Amino acid sequence: MSTTPLLELRRVSKHFRKPPGLLARLRNAAGLPARQAPGVVAVDDVSLSIRAGEVVGLVGESGCGKSTLGRMAVGLHSLSAGERFWKGELLAGASRLAPHRTSLGMQMIFQDPQASLNPRMRVQDIIGEAPVAHGIVERRRQAEYVETLLERVGLDPAVIRHFPYQFSGGQRARLGIARALAVEPEFLVCDEAVAALDVSIQAQILNLFLRLRDELNLTYLFISHDLHVVHHVSHRIVVMYLGRVVESIAAERLFSDANHPYTRALLAEVPSLEPAKKRFIAIRGEMPSPMAPPSGCHFHPRCPHAMPVCRSEAPPLAEIAPGHHSACHLNHVSA
Ligand SMILES: Nc1ncnc2c1ncn2[C@@H]1O[C@H](COP(=O)(O)OP(=O)(O)OP(=O)(O)O)[C@@H](O)[C@H]1O
C-alpha cells in the first residue's frame, strides 16, 4: 500500500489584503504616503496530509479559515506560503518556481447548491457540460452519462430536462454532488455541504456521501462548523482556531481523549453529548477578529486554563499520543 498522501499541504498560509478603506483613499487622493493596510492571515502555517480513502473533518467557528484552507486544498486559492502536493507531486507553492495548478481529480462542493447551479441551465447541461468539455464523455453519450450519475445520487433520471428551481433543497444538494462526480474526482472538499438542509435531509445526504466514498473510493475533506455533523462521517477530526490547527485526533477518540481546551469547549456545545458533556467547559466570549489575533496562543483570552506563557508564545502542534496532535502549553507543564 502506498504511504504517499493523496493530498498534502505543507506549512501553508494565506494572507488577504484588506481593500483600502475611506481614510486610505483620502490619503491617496491627498498624495500622502500610504500606510500599510492591515490584512487577514486566514490560514497561518498549517500542515495537513490526507491519505486515499480517508475522511477528514475540519471544524471550527465561523471565520477561523476552514473554507480558505479547503479552497487552497483544491487549488481555488493560491498559497501565500508553503507547498501543496498531489500524490507526491508538487502542484503549487508560494514561489514562482512552483506554479499554481489544479486538477480535475479534486473538486469542491459548496453549501448553497441553489447559488452554484445556473438557474437557466437544464440538469443535462449543469452536470454534463464539464465531462464533455474535458473529453471524459462524448457529446452524443452525454444524456446517458448524466442519467447514470442522477441514479447514483438517488435522483430519478427523468429529471434530466428539469431546471434547478424544480427541485427541493435536498435534491439540489444531490445535483451538486452529481455535478462534482461528473469529472471523476478522487478527492472532494465538502464545504458546509449539508448546513442549509433540515436535520432529516442532512442525515440522508451524509449517508449518500458515505455510500459514494465506498463505491467510488473517494477521499473527503469535510468542512463544518458543526462538530456533530463531521464526527458522523470522519475518520479524523482537525480543529482550527483563528487560522491555526489546534488539534488533530481520530474521530473515535474525540469524546474520550479530546485534549485542546478549544476542542473540549466545542464538545460542550454538542447537544447529543448529554450527560457526558458535563465534563467539558463551555466556551467564553466571541472569537477575536482574524485581523487582530491575540498574541501567543490565539485561544488564550477565552481559555479557562490560560497561563502566562500562553500570552507570549504560540504552542507548537505536538504529537501527544500516536496520531494525536494538540497545540497547548498545558501538555508541556510538568506535574
Ligand atoms: N477573498 C477574501 N478576501 C479577504 N478576506 C477573506 C477572503 N476570504 C476569506 N477572508 C477572510 O479570511 C478569514 C477566514 O475566512 P473563511 O471563510 O476561510 O473562514 P471559515 O472558517 O470558513 O468561516 P465561514 O464558515 O463563515 O465561511 C475571515 O476573516 C474572512 O473574512
Automatic annotation (TrEMBL):
Residues in ABC transporter domain copies: 24-267
One Pfam match: ABC_tran
Database matches in PROSITE patterns: ABC_TRANSPORTER_1, ABC_TRANSPORTER_2
Lineage, top ranks: Bacteria, Pseudomonadati, Pseudomonadota, Betaproteobacteria, Burkholderiales
Family: Belongs to the ABC transporter superfamily.
GO MF term list: ATP binding
CDD domains to which the protein is assigned, alphabetical: ABC_NikE_OppD_transporters (cd03257)
Statement: the UniProt record of this protein carries the keyword Membrane: yes
Record carries keyword Membrane: yes
SUPFAM superfamilies referenced in this protein's UniProt entry, alphabetically: P-loop containing nucleoside triphosphate hydrolases
Protein name per UniProt: ABC transporter ATP-binding protein
Signal sequence, renumbered to the chain: none
Keywords per UniProt: ATP-binding, Cell membrane, Membrane, Nucleotide-binding, Transport
InterPro entries: AAA+_ATPase, ABC_transp_ATP-bind, ABC_transporter-like_ATP-bd, ABC_transporter-like_CS, Oligopep_ABC_C, P-loop_NTPase
